[in-house]
Write a structure and sequence with these properties.
Helices cover 58% and strands 8% of the residues. The chain is α+β, with helices and mostly antiparallel strands.
Length: 574
């Protein structure tokens, strides 16, 4: 943990004392700045305020991650993949190499599957236990953002930044899944936290290398992006922290690399070149081929959409830090900037890749919110503008949400979003009212900030409790509930991209999954029951293969083979 000490000496930047500052710059030297004195975190005793803030963050984060998460059906790709492979690890007892319906899977290393399988071992196989590692990683990430921000910025901006992350849609959404990216972002934060702790206790530098090794074991080369993002801090701030002279840094890197190397060696001995082709072939495809065809500017609009409304605050915080002491805050602004640039180099772009950027983007937003807090009385025009815009937007959302609930026939497809609109609108209407009635409140700014963050929190809570958002495959889950509980069911699938998500989902929800087949392979199967994809069912009907339909959903059919009966339709005579 980190404690705190107060320094009243002037900061240096580029070897010169600060004497004049640009208007509005984010600096730390005079009593009217964002900080009246520099807050520097050092290894030491945790204060009661730190404990209170950590409990507050847990109170805010935990409900959003737990609302209905155990009853919502899994996303086929990629969540269902990892959940099913972990189930096969537990049932087979073979944990070295992941398999999906018996076929080896080496596109990603197995750490995520190991975590889920460990959760299954403790709590049984279910959606809840599959998602537990991701939920714990999301909770830990919010806490780590506070402690890293406390070290770099001070207590209040760190708290505000952590609250921003806790109310960010993409962080909450992916934190409720069994995918890899939230654990990967958490490992990056563990590495950064280890480096900061190592400034006072050198042994903590081990944590950086170990976290990088775990990141590679989680998501292959993507785990190294965090190492590249932290290089500006390691190199250009070395005169301050001297981490590059710490031998434990290199011991940790060796141990982290050895962990991945040991798994790779053992897996290669068992599976041969399949391991190399799976890991490095996938990486090559990601750099050469765009799987989602979203264009080069995808993140410029997707990140603000998934980080609404905090993206603009992050940009403002970034500008404030650059106008102030860039060297002092190098880690906070350079880490997300480098990561964002690296992710844009990949032709394949997806929203969840940005989860590694989001924690430090949240800290940048905390900087901007602290700036607003300190200038609550000196620059009322900015608060007036934000309160007016937020209050007006909140009122529109509130009216729209209530109207959809009262008259769902107006926009039937949008009714699912009504609770979300009501939650966000209610919070921001309160924010506007608090500002215009601030003269009656002795300390109105904490309440105003709470309403600003309360809107997104209420929206996410409503989404988790009532809207059904995030429940992606309830129909397939109900369909699989009709499968026989004690008899193997083979999945027949023609490897068509349009059906891959349904295929993966059904594999997890099938009580006793058999093997994966194509229509040409079903004649040799011994399983009495099969699930046929739409294309497979059409092909088998053309081949006059005898089966009895037991249940169906979206052209997927559960069938039972005829054993002692002739086909219902005889092929025409030649």
């Amino acid at each position: 943990m980190w404690g705190r000490m107060q320094l009243s000496v002037p900061l240096r930047s580029g070897g010169k004392r600060h004497q004049n500052y640009a208007p509005g710059s984010y600096h730390v030297a005079d009593e009217h700045s964002t900080y009246s004195r520099l807050t520097v975190a050092v290894a030491g005793r945790t204060t009661q305020t730190d404990i209170a803030y950590s409990l507050l963050l847990l109170t805010v984060s935990l409900p959003l991650l737990l609302f209905n998460h155990g009853s919502q059906s899994l996303v086929g790709s990629d969540e269902g993949y990892y959940a099913q492979m972990a189930r096969e690890m537990v049932t087979s007892g073979q944990w070295l190499a992941p398999t999906f319906l018996g076929d080896p899977y080496f596109e990603k290393p197995p750490l995520n599957q190991w975590l889920i399988a460990a959760s299954y071992t403790l709590f049984g196989v279910s959606e809840w236990s599959a998602r537990l590692p991701g939920i714990l990683a999301a909770l830990m990430g919010v806490q780590l953002v506070y402690w890293i921000g406390r070290h770099q910025l001070g207590q209040r901006p760190a708290l505000l930044g952590a609250l921003v992350l806790a109310t960010a849609y993409l962080w909450v959404h992916d934190g409720r899944t069994a995918a890899q990216d939230i654990p990967l972002a958490c490992l990056g934060l563990i590495g950064v936290g280890s480096l900061l702790a190592a400034e006072r206790r050198p042994l903590f530098a081990l944590g950086w290398g170990l976290s990088l090794g775990a990141g590679v074991l989680l998501k292959s080369a993507a785990g190294l992006l965090a190492a590249i993002a932290v290089l500006p801090f390691l190199v250009f701030a070395n005169r301050h922290h001297r981490l590059l002279h710490n031998p434990w840094l290199y011991v940790g890197l060796g141990l982290g690399g050895a962990g991945f190397g040991l798994w790779y060696w053992l897996a290669t001995r068992a599976w041969g070149p399949l391991v190399y082709k799976g890991l490095f072939g996938t990486l090559g495809m990601l750099t050469r081929r765009d799987f989602h065809d979203v264009g080069p500017w995808y993140y410029l609009w997707n990140f603000p959409a998934n980080f609404f409304p905090w993206a603009l605050f992050s940009l403002a915080g970034f500008v404030l830090l650059l106008k102030g002491d860039r060297q002092r805050f190098l880690l906070v602004w350079s880490y997300p900037l480098v990561l964002f640039g690296l992710l844009n180099l990949f032709t394949t772009k997806t929203p969840y890749y940005l989860l590694q950027v989001m924690p430090f983007a949240a800290l940048l937003a905390g900087v901007a919110l602290e700036y607003l807090w300190k200038r609550a009385h000196s620059r009322r025009s900015l608060h007036s503008w934000l309160s007016g815009l937020g209050g007006a937007l909140g009122a529109l959302l509130l009216v729209a949400g209530i109207t959809l609930l009262v008259q769902p026939r107006l926009l039937p497809d949008a009714v699912v979003y009504a609770p979300v609109a009501i939650g966000l609108g209610a919070g921001w209407v309160v924010m506007g009212l608090l500002f215009w009635q601030r003269r009656w409140l002795l300390r109105w700014m904490p309440w105003w900030m709470g309403a600003l963050m309360g809107g997104p929190w209420l929206a996410l809570a409503a989404a988790g409790l009532w809207s059904g958002l995030g429940d992606y495959n309830p129909g397939l889950k109900a369909f699989a509930a009709r499968f026989p509980a004690h008899s193997p069911v083979d999945l027949v699938y023609e490897k068509t991209p349009d059906q891959v998500s349904d295929y993966i989902t059904l594999a997890f929800y099938t009580p006793v999954p058999g093997v994966s087949l194509t229509a040409r392979q079903v004649h040799g199967t011994t399983a009495p029951y099969l699930v046929l994809s739409p294309e497979s069912a059409l092909q088998l009907r053309r081949d006059y293969w005898p089966f009895e339909v037991m249940a169906n959903y979206k052209d997927w059919v559960l069938v039972r083979k005829y054993v002692h009966m002739q086909p219902a339709i005889q092929p025409p005579a030649p």
